[in-house]
Amino acid sequence: MSKAAHIYAKAIYAIADESSVVVDICDDMRLVSQILTQHKELKAIITSPVIPANKKESILKEVFKNVNSLTSNLLDTLLENKRIGLLGMVADAFVKLYELNNNIQRAKVVVANEMTTELAQQIQQKVNQLTGNHVDIKTEVDPSILGGFILTINDLQYDASVSGKLNKFKTQLVN
């Protein structure tokens, strides 16, 4: 992550906090990140040195016409400073800063089949209890794990999958 992107993210966070719109700006930053990830052409346009700034501005104003005025001001500032190529990194840095300041962690659960709502809630409660923080859990279905689950929180991974247990057993047999 660029140091400049982090500086912009901290500055916009401070202004948003002062104006009591941190949650709104965080939603905008998630939207910006999502759109730039899904639409590689847009990212190519805003990072291209060939495309004039006024063209970039009109495109960004149209794409992000429903964002908070503070987010719109950030776009203007990045355009003026010829740093619009940092937009995705600024958005990601802002979201990370928000999560850090609000003790929110991210986790991923990989399961073999779709989980029931009840099971998802139980996992959510258990993970929140274990970490002492609120954890946003993303669920992914991967039939190749055969059963059980794989839970990843930050850098920690707990593999309670059938395929993981079979691989462990295989390793023990080979040794």
**What is the beta-strand fraction?**
5-15%
Number of strands: 4
Q: Which architecture name of the largest domain does CATH use?
A: Orthogonal Bundle
Instruction: Give the low-confidence spans.
Output: none
**What structural category do the secondary elements indicate?**
alpha+beta
Number of helices: 8
Q: Fraction of residues in helices? A: 55-70%
* Physical arrangement of strands within the biggest beta sheet: 2-1-3-4
Outline of the structure:
The protein is an alpha+beta fold and 175 residues long. Helix content is 61%, strand content 14%.
Helices, strands, pairings?
Layout: H1 3-18, H2 22-38, H3 40-47, H4 53-63, H5 69-80, H6 87-101, E1 104-111, H7 117-131, E2 134-141, E3 149-153, E4 156-159, H8 162-174
Parallel strand pairs: 1-2
Antiparallel strand pairs: 1-3, 3-4
Description:
This protein is an alpha+beta fold. The chain folds into 2 domains: 3-100, Peroxidase, domain 1 (Orthogonal Bundle); 103-174, Glutaredoxin. It is built from 8 helices and 4 strands; from the N terminus they run ααααααβαβββα. It has a 4-stranded mixed β-sheet with strand order 2-1-3-4. Helix 7 links the parallel strand 1 (104-111) and strand 2 (134-141). Helix 1 crosses helix 6, helix 2 packs across helix 3 and helix 4 runs antiparallel to helix 5 (69-80). The longest helix has 17 residues, at 22-38. The protein is elongated, with a radius of gyration of 21 Å.
